[in-house]
Amino acid sequence: MSPPAPRIASLVPSLTELVVALGLAPCLVARTGFCVHPSDVVRTIPKVGGTKDVNLAKLRRLAPTHVLVNVDENRRDTVQALLDWPSAERPELIVTHPCAPIDNLALIDQLLAAFGHIEGVAKRAAALRDELARELALCRPQDFAAQAVLYLIWRGPWMTVARDTYISRMLAVVNWHTLPACEGGEQGAARYPVVQGDEPWLAGVQQVLLSSEPYAFGAQHVEPARALCPQASVQCVDGELISWYGPRAAAGLRYLRALAGAAGAG
């Protein structure tokens, strides 16, 4: 007799997309309001709040057997609340923390370990791994001109990324290095430093990248951002392709190679 199908709750947009890519959409019973891809699939999945403000009562009513969380995107007290559920209701927690593009291989393996017994999952996981491995092999930093970049994720206040974040390490595969040259540790606010505007290192920035998420930067923000680094070029970039791990990572690496190639040609 085969085991019952899992009931998966994903509290991370990237992981929701990965679950679907692995063919596990019929097992999804809950998602956050930020889990918007693929839209034609997730629109029928119940929402349980946001990544930082999960509606635990609604989640509990949906009776998940597995809950997918991420160290950066979810709150520790959310995880603790799930661990405090009675043992009969307590789901298996799958805690993820990819911090570099290559970590996507381990991430896929992590879900494969949990759900690989389900028909089709192993085959889809292998295809995702193969595509990502090909793209990683094509991303050699030495093939691109080094650039010092300021990657902005928020305004009011301006916020950027530390060098040990997934975003910064994605940029590093094309020899783009984020400023400030600091690490933020495994978790916490230091991973996303506030930029005051008077830091000496701002004078060394060659490119300012305005992410489309989590703050929806657009053309109207180019000039205010340019004031931070008057000598730098400023452009809007697709934040989902740069910051989402899982199945979007391979496309993100292709996107970055194109951006770096255009910058080199210019």
Summarize it.
This protein is α/β, with parallel strands linked by helices and 266 residues long.
Ordered list of secondary-structure elements with their pairings:
Blueprint: E1 8-10, H1 13-21, E2 28-30, H2 39-42, H3 56-61, E3 66-70, H4 76-83, E4 92-96, H5 103-115, H6 121-138, E5 147-152, E6 158-159, H7 166-172, E7 176-178, E8 194-195, E9 207-211, H8 222-226, E10 233-237, H9 239-243, H10 249-265
Parallel strand pairs: 1-2, 1-3, 3-4, 5-7, 5-9, 9-10
Antiparallel strand pairs: 6-8
Helix pairs in contact: 5-6, 6-10
How many strands, what sense, and barrel or not for the largest sheet? 4 strands, parallel
The assigned CATH architecture of the largest domain is 3-Layer(aba) Sandwich
Proportion of strand residues: 5-15%
Structural class: alpha/beta
Looking at the structure, the CATH topology of the largest domain is Rossmann fold
> Which regions are unreliable across 5 or more consecutive residues at pLDDT < 50?
none
Per DSSP, the total helix count is 10
Number of domains: 2
State the CATH class of the largest domain.
Alpha Beta
> CATH superfamily of the largest domain, please?
Nitrogenase molybdenum iron protein domain
